[in-house]
Inverse folding.
């Protein structure tokens, strides 16, 4: 098992790519810390992982952009496990709006969840990882953070920020033995992409060289690679999981 | 037996390039040679490991001297004789 003895926090882990990652990590023997804004689903997910994989699983409700909630989250991880080996910065929101329709509320909300949240997690995780002088952080960006997309100026900006964040943190944390990488999914079959219009779906499909939409499990496998020692000499990289949308 | 004060001194010695006859009460962030932002993170990690505590971000930023470190640890339940 690739993650036996490792403590892993996955933000936004009740749905889509986050949930697929949590399942794969539990299957690989990790102690899993689930996180979302809260609710019944979070507890259901915790029970599900524990029953199926028999690995330690805890669930922590915390809004990714709330500094105090994030701090308390790490206090709890410290209390229960005394360490953190892997952080998957997955929580994010996608809200489309053409340029003329972007409100300041939309900007605030996306920036708080998609940029401030990952920075807060990265900062706290690096401190716990720094004690062991090892760790791996995987940030979930998006293909639109690399190439942009009409109607997604705010979302694309936030995902581009994650790429800059990944590279800056990788440079700063490398001397402390902590690797930081990013995964940039293309069109993946999640609640988020199912909410897109039919036209949007069709156009995306036409641009995928492999001719199909990706599955969350395929992104999770890439996250596992970057999180595990299989990628021990890789840091500061952005790995596309997009079926060839960008070649 | 090692006291909490001895342990705190050892943490500073491990994290910062201090001279043998250093006056611990004069160790201040940004003024003491070698205590820069990088060394600060090493110091915090060492402090948290040795005393089995986790500081908040505000505490981390406020950790600006040896005496401040002692004060913060006391707030986390560490007893100094």
């Amino acid at each position: 098992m690739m993650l036996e003895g490792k403590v892993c926090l996955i933000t936004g882990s009740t749905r889509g790519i986050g949930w697929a990652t949590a399942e794969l990590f539990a299957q690989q023997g990790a102690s899993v810390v689930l996180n979302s804004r809260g609710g019944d689903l979070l507890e259901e997910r915790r029970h599900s992982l524990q029953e199926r994989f028999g690995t330690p699983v805890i669930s922590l409700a915390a809004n990714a952009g709330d500094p105090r909630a994030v701090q308390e989250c790490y206090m709890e991880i410290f209390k229960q496990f005394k360490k953190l080996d892997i952080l998957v910065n997955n929580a994010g929101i996608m809200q489309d709006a053409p340029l003329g329709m972007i409100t300041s509320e939309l900007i605030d909300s996306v920036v708080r969840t998609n940029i401030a949240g990952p920075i807060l997690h990265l900062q706290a995780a690096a401190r716990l990882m720094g004690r062991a002088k090892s760790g791996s952080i995987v940030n979930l960006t998006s293909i639109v953070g690399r190439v942009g997309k009409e109607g997604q100026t705010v979302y694309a900006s936030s995902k581009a920020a994650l790429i800059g964040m990944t590279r800056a943190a990788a440079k700063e944390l490398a001397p402390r033995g902590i690797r930081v990488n990013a995964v940039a999914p293309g069109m993946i079959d999640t609640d988020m992409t199912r909410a897109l219009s039919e036209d949007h779906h069709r156009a995306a499909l036409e641009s995928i060289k492999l001719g199909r939409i990706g599955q969350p499990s395929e992104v999770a496998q890439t996250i596992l690679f970057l999180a595990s020692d299989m990628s021990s000499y890789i840091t500061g990289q952005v790995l596309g999981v997009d079926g060839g949308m960008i070649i | 037996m090692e006291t909490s004060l001895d342990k705190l001194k050892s943490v500073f010695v491990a994290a910062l390039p201090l001279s043998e006859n250093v006056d611990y009460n004069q160790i201040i962030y940004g003024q003491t040679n070698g205590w820069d932002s990088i060394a600060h993170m090493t110091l915090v990690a060492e402090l948290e490991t040795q005393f089995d505590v986790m500081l908040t971000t505000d505490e981390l930023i406020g950790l600006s001297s040896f005496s401040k470190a002692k004060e913060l640890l006391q707030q986390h339940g560490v007893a100094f004789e």
